[in-house]
Amino acid sequence: MRILARDDAIQMLNKVPEVTLYFWIIKIMATTVGETGADFLNFDLNFGLTGTSVFMAGLLVVFLFMQLRSRKYVPWLYWVNVVLISILGTLITDNLVDNFGVALEMTTAGFGLALLVTFALWYASERTLSIHSIFTTRRELFYWVAILFTFALGTAAGDLVAESMKLGYANSALMFGTMIVAVTIAYYGFKANAVLAFWIAYILTRPLGASCGDWLSQPIANGGLGLGTVTTSLIFLLTILGLVVFLSVTRKDVTPRTA
């Protein structure tokens, strides 16, 4: 089953997975881990916001270097980088808000602008924003920078809606989930542009996953279910691990390169 990827738009190249239902499930869970994982390192392990940021940035540099050196799509390596970028994107926003006092409205607007600039530079250089054409190092670098900004933007937008606007975690998840459904309907029902639909959905899954993570992990008194960051992170990490192992064995998200 392909979600937001019609048959006539599929052209899998060797560094990026095919956009399937598995892709979106792992992506949403990775965003949840980004929210709960950052909180776990920051508060439960007492790394502090700065220490957590430095530690995660170091890990990302190591694994992203491995990803860039790889000559083909490797499921576990790709998704490790997505999880790490998810956590780092959360931390970037948290640092700006908590350590530097930048308002969520400003961080949301700023990361939105940064993402638009990234897309503009990417398109000016490569004449495409399709994730099915990531077959050079330059395109892959644009791709990962865009991914980082989508996570930072999603974190800021999710916190803005859930906290500043006091919508609550469950209602925020419902709102962003409804928006993703609307994008899917526009794509399948009205033949919306595949690249535009993908990136809008990718951005929206970040606040959806963050809201779900907060809803599951936060205390009942704060509007959550009280599972805690450890339990929530563990559940989602094990689920991601199971799906990545499944994809590594079955190669269901790998399509042979076409001319």
Automatic annotation (TrEMBL):
It comes from the Bacteria. The keyword Membrane applies. The keyword Membrane applies. Keywords: Membrane, Transmembrane, Transmembrane helix. It comes from Sulfuricella denitrificans (strain DSM 22764 / NBRC 105220 / skB26). This is Membrane-anchored protein. The chain crosses the membrane at residues 21-41, 47-66, 73-93, 99-121, 141-162, 168-188, 195-216, 228-249. It holds the Pfam family DUF347.
